[in-house]
Amino acid sequence: MIAYLQRTLASRLKHGRSLTLLAVLGVALGVASVFSIQLLNRNSLAAFSGSVQSLSGDADLSVTGRTPTLPETFYPKVLATAGVSEAWPIYRIDVAVEGHPGLFLEVAGLDLFAAGRLPLVSGDGAGDGNAHGTDALAAFLYRPGWVAVSPALAEEMGWSVGDTVTVSSGSRLADLHIGALVDFRRHTPLAPRKLAVMDIAQAQSLLGRRGELHQVDLKIDKGRDLEEMRRLLTAALGPAVQVLTPEQREQNAAGLLSAFRLNLTALSLISLFVGVFLVYGSVRATLVRRRAEFGLIRSLGGTRSQVLALILGEAGALGLLGAIIGVPLGWLAARLNMGLVSGTLTNIYLLEEIERLRVPADLVVLALLIGVGGALAGALQPSLDMARKDTRTLLSAFTLHQRADRLAPRMAFTALAVGVAALAFYGFYGRTVRWGGFSLGLMILVAFPLLTPLIIRLVCRPIRVRRLGLAYSARNLLLRLGTSSVAVAALGIAVCMLVGVTLLIGSFRATLETWIAGYVRADIYVSTKSWTRAGREAFLTPGLVEELTTLPGVRSSALLRRFPVMSGERKIMLSGISFDLENSDYILPLKSGDSREALRRVRDEDATIITEPLALKTGLGPGDTLTITGPDGEVHFTIAGVSRDYSTESGMAYFSMQTVDRFFGPGQVNSVGLYLKKGLAPDEAADGLRARYEQLPLEVRSSRDIRDGVLQLFDQTFAVTRLLQVMALLTAACGIALSLLVQARERISELALYRCLGAGRGQIFRLFLGEGLAAGLLGTLLGAAGGVLLALILIYVINPAYFGWTIQPHWPWPALLRQAAGIMAAALAASVYPALRGSRTPARELSREDL
Amino acid sequence: MTAPALQFDAVSKIYPREGGGGRTALKEISLEVAAGSVAAVVGRSGSGKSTLLNLAAGIDLPTGGRVILEGRDLAGLSEKERTLIRRKSVGLIFQFFHLLPHLTVEDNVALPEWIAGQTSTAALPRIRELLERVGLADRSGDPVQQLSGGEMQRVAICRALVRRPRLLLADEPTGSLDDENSRQVMDLLLALAREEGSTLIFVTHSRELAGLADEVRQLKSGVLVPP
Fold it and tell me: Is B168 exposed, middle or buried (0-12, 13-18, 19+ CB in 10 A)?
C-alpha cells in the first residue's frame, strides 16, 4: 500500500496540481500564522530572560524590593544570612541617549568588588577590546562615567573606546565614557544588545539615587535547600522585599504578557482553522472523484483500515508539505512584525525589546506537527466516511452535493445544539474561569460553518433566474453545496475574525479617544525623555518643578509621581498626584460616582482611586480596602472610587502626593501638568517651553500631542493583528479558488453544453467570477454577522476577563466598508484562475452521459 | 438557385494520437444540404457521424477541406466568431438530451436566450409557444428530472428552436428513447423544423427514421457512400 500511496501522491501533484497546491497553501498560511505568533511570543519572553540571565544567570536567588528599590542596608543583611555564600548588589536604570530619539541604554550598575561572581564580567577574559578579565575591567571603574558597551552596539552607533556619550536620566544629563567594548553575549547569549555596564556607585550618583539598589543576587552554600533558603531570607529581610529565583522572575514576566500572548495565539489559531477547512474541502472533493478507485481497492481485497490509512496518509503528506512552506513564511511574517511587537513590549509592558529572532528547534517541530495534525483533522471526517462504506456503495454513482443538501438541516440543528451547549457551559461554569469566554468564541467558529449549507439553501433557493447573470451564478452555489459551503464557511470564519477584531479595535480606539479627552485635562505636560522606560527614576528635579509651576501664564498645575508597588502578589502602579481641586478642572473619569468628591477624599482622607483593571482583577470596589506593601510593611487604604483607565492592564492606584510621601517615603515628581491662563494657546506655549528648556532632556507635550502619541501607540500595538487578519483572508481566498477549481473540473460537461449553445469564453469566465462574487458576498454577510457576535464576546466577556477595560461599542464604518471591498476584491481575484480554467472548456468536451 | 445551408467541401478530420500518427474520422467528404430541407446521415457507431455534426456546428475544425455555413468558411473564423454563428444560426439536439437538472422546463428552454443576453421575460412568449406546440405547456415550471425520456427530448427540441436557428443539428435524437417515443419525437422534430423553416440534419443508425428525411447520406468508416 505504501507504493500505491507514493504513486497516488505523485499523480496528485502532477495532475491535480492546482487543487493540491491550494490545499497546501491553506495549511501553509495557517501554520505560518501560528508559527509567527509563537515565534514572537517566545522571543519576547527570551528577551526578558536574556536580561535576567545576563545579570542574574549565576545567581540562585534574587532579592528585590516590593517597592521599586530597596535600601543598600539590605545588602549586608543578605550577606550576613546563614547559608548565603556570595552576594552582589545591582542597580539598574534605563537612560535615554541624547541625539538619538528612542534609543535607550540599559545600564547595569555592578560592584566588581562585591563578594560574588558577576556573570557578565567573571571568568577568563570576558572583556574584549582593551578590557581583559575582571582585573582589567575593575581597573577602569573608578573613572567617572566609565561604561562598557557591547561591540555590536558600538558598531551600530559608530562609538569607539574613548568616546563620550551624553545620556539623560530624568531631567539630569550625564556624560558616559566608553571605556571598553565587552561582548556580553559570550557569557550570556541572550544578553541585550543595549546593555551597558558601569560601576554601581557611579550609576547611582550619576543616573539614579545613592543608597538604593534594585536587587541583590546571591548564591547559597552547596547542599542547602533552595526553597528553605528562600523562606529563611524572606523571614530575615522582612515584608518589604521578595526573594525569587531567576526562573520565578521570568515566570512573572510571562504572567505579565499572558493575556497579550494568549489573545494573539487565539487569533492565529483562527487562521489555522480556516486552513483546516481547506484541507477538508479538498479531501472531500478528491474523495468523491475517487470513490470508484476506493471501491476497486476494496473489491480487490483492500480493508477499510487500508483505505482509511491511504487517505489519511495523503492528507498527512499534504499537511507536512504545507507546514514545510509555512515555517519560513511564518518566520518572515514574524521578522516583519518584530518591530511592532517589540514596541508593544517596551511601551506597554516595560519589558525588553526583541533584538533578534531566534528559531527554537522545538517550535519548528511543533509547527510541523500542527501542519500534519491540522491536515489530518481536516481529512478525518471524510476519510472515515469513505472507509465506512461497503464496496457496492463505493462503486455506485453518487454526488457530494446531493448529500450536502440532505445534511444541511441536520448540520444546522447541530449548530443550534453547539450554541445551546456553549451558552449553558458559559452560564454554569465558564463565567467562573478566566478562559470561559473563549468557549463562546469557539461556539461561533464551530456553529457558523455548520449553519452555512442551510443558509446558502435559504438564500439561494428563492432566487429566480431570468438571465445568465449574477443570480444564475448565485444559484449555482446551491447546486454544488458540498464544495461551495466549505468555501463560504472558510471565508465566513476569516471575515468573522476580521470584523470581530476590527469592531473591537475600532470600539477600543473610540473609547480611548473619549477617555483621553476626559483624562488629559492639563494644557501642557512636562516629563523627561527617559520616563517611558526608566519610570520612577526619570524624575524632574525639585527646582525645575518649582520653576515650571510658577511660570508666568500657568494658572495651576498637577504633579505626578509614579512607581510600581506590590499589592499582595500583584504588581501594580502607584500614582501620587498633587492637584488643585479648587482652581483647576482636574478630574479622574470614574466608572460611577462624583469624581471631585472622590478626589477630595483622596486629598483629605488618604483614600485611593483605583483603576478599572485593578478593580476587575481583584474584585475590589468603592468602600473596600486596598492593601499595598510599603517600605515598612503592609498599608491599607480605603477605595474612594474606580476610574476608567487604559494606560496599564496591571492596574493602578491613585493617591494624593502627601499620602504617598507619608507611606512610601518622599520622592521626586515624574511629570507635571500645567493649566494655562485663559487666552494662551497650548501648542504655542509648548513650543515656548521647548525653546526655553532646549538644553534639558525634557519631553514637553501639549494635550493634543499626548492624544496623538497615545493613539499612535495604540495603533502600533494592534498592528500585529492586521497580519493575522490578512493571513486568514488569504487562506479563505484560497478556499474560494479551491471550490471554483473543483467546480471547473466537475462541471466540464455543463460548461461544454453552454459552449455548444453559443456561450462565449467571456460568458463562462463571468459565470465563474459571479460565483466567486456570490460566495464572497455570502461569506461576507455570514462572517459579518458572526463578527458582530464575536466582537460582543471580545468586548463584554474576553476583554474584561483578561484586560479589565470597559470598551464602548463603536462602529468604525469606513474601516468596515474598506474591508468589505477588500474581501470582495479578494474573492474576485481568487476566482480569476478557476474562471480562466472553466472558460477554456471546449464545446467538444460535452460527454455522453454527464449532467 | 438558393445557396446551400451547409456545405462540406472535401472535408477530412484526423484526430492526433499520442506518439505520432492519427485516427481518421472523416475522409474528404463533400456534401451540400439545401436550405429548408431535411437530411439524414446514417451509419454505425464510430463511422464519424458525431464528428460530422461537430464540424457542422463549428465546435471542431477540419484538418482538411472546407465547412461552409451561411456562406462562410468556418476554418477561417476565430473561435469567438464560430461561437457567435452557433449562437445565432445553429440549434443542437443531443442523444442524451443534456438538460440542466437544476433548471425547470421553461428555464432549460430559455437557456440559449440567456446566453444570447436576453431575459426570460423577453423570450417568454416564444418559449410558451414552443412548449405548447410540444404538449408540455402545463409542465413549464417542473424540474426536468420529473420528465420522461420522450418529454425531455421534446424540451431539448424546444431549446434548440427557441432562437429560430436556420440550421438544426440532431445527434441520434431518438437514441435514448423507446420505439413509440422515437417515432413521436421524430415526427415532432420534422414538423417543427418544417414549420420554422429550418434546415435539419440528423444522424441516426435507424434506416426507418432516416427514411423520413428528404435526403439520406450514409457514412462508412469516415467516407460518404451511397445509401
Answer: buried
Closest partner CB to B96 (pick from A479, A759, A849): A849
A231 pLDDT higher than 70 = yes
Shortest distance, CA A784 to any CA of chain B (angstroms): 30
Q: Return residues 111-140 of B near A (CB < 8 Å).
A: 111-112, 114-121
A808 DSSP assignment: -
Predicted confidence at residue A561, as pLDDT, reads 92
Q: Which three cell numbers stand for residue A128?
A: 574584549
Contact A479 B102 (CB under 8 A): yes
In a 3-state reduction of DSSP, which class is residue A586? coil
In percent, the amount of chain A with pLDDT more than 90 equals 26
Suggest the residue from B50, B111, B118, B158 to mutate for an interface test with chain A (most A CBs closer than 10 A). Answer: B111
Question: Under 8 Å CB-to-CB from B72, ≥6 apart: which residues?
Answer: B85
Given this model, what pLDDT does residue A131 score? 45
Task: Determine phi and psi for A64, rounding to 5 degrees.
Answer: -125, 160
CA distance A847 to chain B (A): 9
User: A757 touching B, CB under 8 A?
Assistant: yes
Interface residue A468 vs chain B (CB under 8 A): yes
Distance from CA of B4 to the nearest CA of A (A): 22
Q: Is the pLDDT of residue B211 over 50?
A: yes
CA dihedral A437, A438, A440, A443 (to 10 degrees): -170
Q: Tell me the per-residue pLDDT of A285-306, one tens digit each, with 9 for 90 and over.
A: 777 677 777 877 777 777 888 8
B13 and B60 in contact (C-beta within 8 Å)? yes
A210: phi then psi, degrees, rounded to nearest 5: -70, 150
- Chain A residues inside the 8 Å CB shell of B80: 760-761
Nine-digit cell string for A677: 491662563
| Pairing outcome for strands B199-204 and A570-578 | unpaired
CA distance A732 to A450: 16
Q: From A468, which residue of chain B is nearest by alpha-carbon distance?
A: B114
Q: How far is A849 from chain B (nearest CA, A)?
A: 6
Q: Where are the alpha helices (DSSP H) in A480-588?
A: 481-519, 531-534, 542-549
- Answer whether A759 sits within 8 Å of B115, measured CB to CB: yes
> What's the rounded Cα separation, in Å, for the pair B68 and B6?
6
CA distance A293 to chain B (A): 25
pLDDT digits (tens, 9 = 90+) for A794-819: 899 988 888 788 888 998 999 899 98
Q: What value, to the nearest 5°, has the Cα angle with vertex A596 and ends A594 and A602? A: 105
**What is the C-alpha to C-alpha distance for residues B61 and A431, in angstroms, rounded to an integer?**
72
Residue A433 confidence (pLDDT): 86
B159 inside 8 A of chain A by CB:
yes
Q: Give residues with Cβ within 8 angstroms of A142, minimum separation 6.
A: A199
Is B104 touching A (CB cutoff 8 A)? no
Residue pairs spanning A and B at CB distance below 8 A? 79
ipTM of the complex: 0.88
CB contacts of A755 in chain B (<8 Å) are: 59, 83
For residue A338, the one-letter residue type is M
pLDDT digits (tens, 9 = 90+) for A618-628: 899 999 999 99
- Looking at the complex, does the CB of residue A840 fall below 8 Å from at least one CB of chain B? no
Tell me which range, A256-265, A477-486, A813-822, is most confidently predicted by mean pLDDT.
A813-822
* Radius of gyration of the CA atoms of chain B, in A: 17
pLDDT tens per residue across span B136-193: 999 999 988 889 989 999 999 999 999 999 999 999 898 888 888 888 889 999 999 9
Chain B CB within 8 Å of residue A358 CB: no
CA distance linking residue A802 with residue A261, whole number of Å: 11
Asked if residues A574 and A563 have their Cβ atoms less than 8 Å apart, the reply is yes
Does pLDDT of A114 surpass 50? yes
